[in-house]
Amino acid sequence: MDLADIQKIAEQTIVIRAPTQPLATFGITTVTYHLVTATALAEDEISSTDAVIRTGVVTANRPQIVTPNYLLNLFDGFEHGQEFAQYLLESYGPNAPGLLYTYRNELKETNVVSEPPDSVAHRLADQFDREGQVHTAVIRGNDHYWDISLMKFIHDLTIGSLRQTIGDLGERRLLGMDKGVPRAARARIDEMFAAVAAGEMEPIQLKRELDRWGLFTEYEDRFLGMFRRKE
Fold it and tell me: Under 8 Å CB-to-CB from 10, ≥6 apart: which residues?
C-alpha cells in the first residue's frame, strides 16, 4: 500500500476515548485499547450493523529523542509498521528531531457483536469513564488495516504527552544535540554500555542501537574494549 492509503486510514481513525494520564517519561506505561471497526464484510462503515472489537495492550517504554530515520523497522508487533514509519518520515522529514516511545502491541482477543460500531465505541467509552480507568482507550478504526489505526492512536498519544516529557527531559538537561545526535540518545547509549558491562544487557542490543544511529564507528573502540578486558 502507498503513503496516500496510509494517510487516508490515519485521517479516518477517531479516538473516542483517550487515556486520561500522559505517558511516563522515565518509566513504562501500559495502555489497554479497545479498537472498534465495522466487519470486513460490511459494504460501508455507516450501514454496518455488526462491530468487531479488538482488545489488547500496548506497552510504551521510556521515550527517546530520535529522528524519523530511526523509526524505520522499529514498530514491534505491527504488520504495517514499516509503512507507517515511512509515512512519518515523508510527513516530517528524515532528520527532524522528535520523541519516540518504543511500543509493543499484544492483541488479547477479538469479538464480534451485533451492534453498530459507533454505538459500541461510545458505549465502551462511557463505561470506562464511569469506572475511572486512566490508561484505557477506545478507538474507532479501519478493520482491514486496524494496526494502522492503532499506530495512529499511539502517535497522537505521544504528541499529547509531549509537553510533560519535554519538561522532564529539560530538567535533566537531556535536550539538545551533540555532534548531530540527540544528547538524550548519547545518555541512553552510555546507560547501555554500563548495562552490558554489568551483565544486565546482551551486547547485541547495544550494537543494534549504535547501528540505528550510525554511530558504531565512533564507539567501536569502546565497544570492543569491553571484550578485550574480559580476555
Answer: 84, 87, 148, 149, 152
